Amino acid sequence: HVECLLQGNLVSEEARGLVRSFLEPLGIAEALEELPASGTAALPEGWTLLEREGTNPEERNGAVVVMLQAAEYSLEMKCLAELAGQVLGQRFFDELRTKQQLGYIVNASAFAETHAFVGLRLTVQSERDPDEVLSR
Fold this sequence. Notes:
By secondary structure, the chain is an alpha+beta fold. It has helices at about 10-25, 75-100, 130-135; strands spanning about 60-70, 105-110, 115-125. The protein is built from 3 helices and 3 strands.
């Protein structure tokens, strides 16, 4: 089950089209009549890339968010992910924001889905092409 919130200058049909463009690559084609019990699934090994063009052709900014699912949730794994986020976050920011001046927003942090998974989230918002950002 997926919940979406879109904010901004959108009409209803644009919002529905954006939601469909996110759901179709995930194999979700239609709304469910009844919501399933809450849960989180393990990602398959490898990686999945979801790309979306912005709706404003004059907007120069883009963003890359990389989610690394590391381990099943436990207090120990959550603490290790938080520690890794702190250590790597400083280096990530120093290298990509300070030295390479790659983007205005550069962040590495831990995420934890209680009773599911922990991992790291890497975020860069930049005027540079997202493919260039991802390659760094």
